[in-house]
Amino acid sequence: MLKVTNLSIHYRERKVLDNISFDLPARQLIGIIGANGSGKTTLLKGIMGLLPIQAGKVEILGESWERVRDRLAYVPQRNAVDWDFPASVLDVVLMGRLKPRTFFSRYTAEDKRIAQESLEQVQIADLAQRQISKLSGGQQQRVFLARALARKADVYLLDEPFAAVDMATEQTIMELLQTMREVGKSIAVVHHDLNTVTAYFDYVLLLMPDGVLAGKTADIFTPTNLQKAFGGRLGTI
Q1: What is the pLDDT of residue 107?
Q2: Fold of 2-230
């Protein structure tokens, strides 16, 4: 799924990620965890080309980001979006059908069918015409996921999809991610609740103060590694 070699990303003159390397397998559900400020969101943005990379190399499915961007879907943090923008739920989900080379094209009947199908998958098809400003936090998160599903990607990168959502929404999203993995999708999720890591993820990428650890959850998610990563501040991070 992802091969990162000697990657360094600076943000506002601060070295957030410094010379890190790791491999993540395809067709797995992977948790990205680490203390606040460890660079989880910065990593996803760097992979997606949304932040400049100072050094190193990122390969996705064996290719550069530019060559596979049509096969990627990215779900940013919910608080990074202006939810007062005058758009309906269906409008937002249809954005997942846009490709860089066809940005100004009209949506086709197939695009609309896929968007509606994606809303059904996250169980909010009845909200298709509602303005996004009228949604609850959990509903907004489902809209984001539906937009990603509409892209029909091979690799999905999600930044804290469970933050500030109700348990029913978290369970719905988790079941959908598991289904996606079963049909061959590759999924990486920035996750903050350490209590659910072992239940949710096959593999873990753990951001440490001096690098990263990546591997099967049972091998990486250990008390010793967590102590080093979080410095004793364990719980929900």
Answers
A1: 85
A2: Rossmann fold (3.40.50)
Please report, as a single letter, which amino acid is at residue 221.
Answer: F
Joined tokens for residue 212: 């990263």
- CA torsion sign for 184, 9, 42, 38 is positive
Compute CA distances 233 → 160, 191, 199, 227, 236, whole Å.
19, 16, 21, 8, 9
Residue 95 carries which side chain, given as an amino acid letter?
M
Using one digit for the tens of pLDDT, what is the confidence trace for 162-181? 988 888 889 989 999 999 99
Residues in the chain: 237
Task: Tell me the angle at which helices 137-150 and 167-182 cross, rounded to the nearest 10 degrees.
Answer: 10
The pTM of the full predicted model, rounded to 2 decimals, is 0.89
Q: Are 161 and 192 in contact (CB under 8 A)?
A: no
- Between CA 178 and CA 29 the distance in angstroms is 7
Q: Is the pLDDT of residue 117 over 60?
A: yes
Closest-CA residue to 208 (of 80, 68, 19) = 19
Closest CA to 168 of 209, 123, 207: 123
